[in-house]
Every structure is written in C-alpha cells, then in structure tokens.
Amino acid sequence: MCGIFGYIGNRNAPEIIHQGLKRLEYRGYDSWGISIIEKGKIKTVKDVGHIPSILQKELKSNIGIGHTRWATHGGVTITNAHPHLCSDKRFVLAQNGIVENYSNLKKDLEKKGFVFKTQVDTEVIVKLIELNLRSKISLKESLIKSFKQLEGRNTVILLDSKENKILAIRNGSPLILGVNKDEVFLASDPLAFNHCTQNIVEINNGELIEIDNGNYKIFDIKSKKEIKRKPKEEKLLNIDIDKGGYDHYMLKEIVQQQHTILNATSYSQKELKPLIDRIKNSKNIYTIGAGTAAYAGDQVCYYLRNIAHRNAISIRSYETESFLNVIDKNDIVIAFSQSGETADTLEAIEILKQKGVYICSVINMPGSTLSRLSDIFFMSNAGSEICVASTKVFTSQVSFGYLLSKSLINEYSLAKKELVSLSTSLESYFNAILFKKVKDISSKLKNKEHFFILGKGQNYHIAQEGALKIKEISYKHFEGFAAGELKHGVIALIERGTPVISIISEDINSKDLISATYEVKARGALTIGIGDKQFEKEKSFDYFIPCADTNELKGIANVIPFQLISYYLAKALGNSIDKPRNLAKSVTVK
Ligand code: F6R
Prior knowledge:
Oligomer: single chain
Number of strands: 25
Number of helices: 16
Radius of gyration: 25 Å
Distance between the termini: 10 Å
Helix content: 25-40%
Strand content: 15-25%
Shape: globular
Bound molecules: fructose -6-phosphate
Strand order of the largest sheet: 3-2-4-1-10-9-11-15
Largest sheet: 8 strands, antiparallel
Mean pLDDT: 94
C-alpha cells in the first residue's frame, strides 16, 4: 500500500531513489514519482504505470524523496501521483496511508480559500501545512501540528528545498531508517535499501525524523523532545531479490517450498517452550490474520483442534470486534502475517493488547511492527516473498502451526520427521512432467469463467486458499467450499462444462468427496481431482493432479497444485503474474 523512499548522501539521489522504488514496487504499482532538489529548487518526475527500468530524465542531486502508489483516494493519473508540491514550491510531500477525516478537512480548507488540484487525500496534508505555516511557525512545527489533525494510519515524507532537508513522521504505516557514514536512507521497508546498508534505525509511531547533511535526528511528536537511537546491524536484511533463473518470482517461490517448510520449523523445543507453556495455561487459542494469512490461521486451528485437542478459533483480523466480549487475558492470540504490517491485523492486535491478551506472532519480515507489538514472535524464515500472491509464506505458517500442535502432545520429533519427509518428496515432485500437466489442464480452463473447489476436513481451508490464489492472478471467479455445502445451495450453480475441482486425500472424507464429484458430474461438470496418487484412476475425475507424498501434511501438499494452476492459468491468459492488477503486497491501509 504505497512505498515511500528518501535519501540524503554523497551518491546520486535520483538513482538511489529509483532503485529503492523498484524494490518497493510490490507495495503499489499504479503510479510513481521522484522529487529532488537541484540548485535550491524542487524538480519532480512522475508517471503512471510500472516504474521504468531506466530513468529517462537526467537528474542530479544528493537529496530527494520518492513514492510508488496504490491508489486509495483519486484515480490513477499523473496529477494524483505523489509527491505533491505546495503552492509556493518550497516543499513536496508523499504519503502512505489514508486520511480518514479527509472530507471534513478538505471542506474546512476550501472554506478558507484553498483550491484543490488533485483528488488525493495527500493534498489535504500539504494544504494543512501551508495553513499552519501562516502562523509563523517552522515547517517542522507545522508538519507536527498538521499531522496531529489527521485521523487514520498515516506516514508522510517531506522534502524541504529551503533548508535542504527531509522530514518524515510515522503513525501506523511503516518507516525505517538505513544509515551509513554520511548518508541516510528512509523507506517503508528495509528491502528498499538493504543492498546499500544493513544498519537500521527503527522508527515508532508518533516519531518525527529530521535528516540533513547525512545526519538524522528523531523527535517524539508529543513531547517534542529528541530521542537518541543508534543504528543496529540487521543481518537478516540480506534479502535475495533475484528470480533465480525462473521467469517469475511466483514460480521460484512455489518451488522454494521444499526448503521453506523446513526453515519455518527450524525452532528447537527449547525455543518453542515459552509458547507451549503459555498455550498449556490458556483457555482458548485464537488465530488472527487476513486473506491468505487468515486461511493459514484456519488450517493451524484445524491442527490445534485435531492434533492437540485444544479449543482453537480462527478470526479474520477485520472481524475481531465481534469476539471482543469473549476473549480475555486467559486466552492466547497467534497472529499470522507475512509483512507484519497489515493494518487490519495491527489494529486487532492493538485492541487485544489493551485487554491484556498474550500475543504471539508469526511473521516473515524482520523488524516489522507486528513483531514489536507481540509478547513473543517467530520468524517464518521463508526469505523474501516478492510475488504479490503469497505461496511459500502460507505453507511456512501452516508448517509452524503443525509443529506447534505436535509439540503440544510431545510429538515434536515425529513432526520434524514428517516435515523432512514432505520436503524430500517435494524435491522430486517439482518436475517438468508435473509442470506440463498443470499447464495443459490450465489451458483447458482458460475460457471458463466460474470454477468451484470442494474440500472437507483437512482440505476445507485448502479449497478456500486455493480459490483465493487462483482468483488473484487469473482474475477468474473461483470459489472454495466445504464439500458438505454443495447440496445446500452451491449445486444450483453447476451447469454443463462448469469446472469443479475436488481435493481428495486418503482419509475419512474421501468417500464423501467422490460422491460430491459424481453429483456435479451428473449435472455436466468438468471434474478435476487433486490429491493422493491412489485416486488417479478414480472414474469420477476427468483430470487428476497427484500431490506430493505425505502422511499428516496433506494440507500443504494439496495447496501446491492450486498455486501452480494459478501460475499457469495467469500465464495462459497473459496476465501480470508477480504484480496482479489492483493488489499490493502489504496492505497497510484499512
Ligand atoms: C494473498 C495475500 C493476501 C495476504 C493478506 C495479509 O496471496 O498475500 O491475502 O495474505 O493481505 O497480508 P500479511 O500476511 O502481510 O498480513
């Protein structure tokens, strides 16, 4: 949800900002802009669409800011692209977030004679600063005063041509400093500058940063007092961002799962003990997440209930409110988040913390806000996941939940064996024959519009996650259902040629899945089975994709063909795979 970047130092700022924005592009890619100071004046380049691989315009400066946008208020136009210039051209400003009281502020400003040129909420911030400057306070004071008038989670960065400095202020949306001798970087994510420095300074909500001459100062915006905070070296920032020989990050990340399920579960029993002890002393376990992370939570709850016999309930972050009357400090919450910056999840966690609930989180981004809000956190260790659609982080989260559930019944070592065995079978699973099979089936699905996925028990949430994955990149209507739901309404949607995918494992539900498949087949559906190899010859399926061998981790093995269908279907349709339309990797607005 928008990426912010700032730089002051002895390198050419436009180039550094351009590289930084490219690395932040996963946060939003509908338009972008770079502003620098040249001979005391602000110069800006902006455009709509993806950030080009080379900056056309020759710009030279040692100071500047940049922004990559995921539109909230106002369409995708060059005028609406950030940064936004103030009336007397002294400063430009870029924002990440949503000004929730935008309409009221805009009305007030219009009454005072301000004329708006864009449709973006950011312009309200620019005009508020201009208004506050009229009372002869400094730009820094005016920024603080204006920022305090904003509602919502916002982070802004400002380039001041008069004093040749950058100011930034954080509330909610992420912001982090990177520091070298004589140069300072500022970004929404350390991935943007980790190729230049691994010395970072974390910035908290309610803090303002002032950077000039390659030095930074941090201030608390309430007390206005300076906070001394030294950089720390973050080795984990050595993030790998190449495609490793694949055409797309998505395929690379799908194949990496043979390793990432082990990385996510590399924790020793000693490391897990504080969480295990806490769960043993808790009444209920709640998982929290949004989108794919919520489906991971669903699957982990399935393991906690069925393996560890614990009362585990999965909550969508944005629906936490309806659980607030029943969750209390005797419960434990486990939040799942790849980015650790999802606004819905952070807001839920902030509320639950106030109720004294113990918070554990499982995150993939080092130094993220969620890790700092949690009583205990575990890294998914999946490495950078660049494709917007989450694949390897989903299976990492589920693997962690499985290890946790088995550890609760003293079967830590058995769980480790099972994970190694799945990892080994995945090594040979990803091969040209499988890819061709999925590609062929996907090309047959290309012209269909509506698809249904049926799952039951351990495969119910996999059906839902599978549908989400395919929707995101193919833009086709996929729905994942509990197979049991079919007869209660869904079957009305089946007509001749409707594709229905059944997830089938050798378990107590296999007979029900076969019956459900016959029921849709009798109504003309095109049937596809995904699951254990022994069902390959099952007559109810028109096509079948076998999954990797595993005893207890069928949920993980069975989601992989859906990730591959998503990839090959999108490819057959000519869609943008790593950066699907309308989406962004990190959803930092509500
Ligand atoms: C889907 C996907 C999203 C995220 C969701 C939460 O492929 O990636 O549904 O899972 O936006 O994001 P995180 O995990 O960063 O909290």
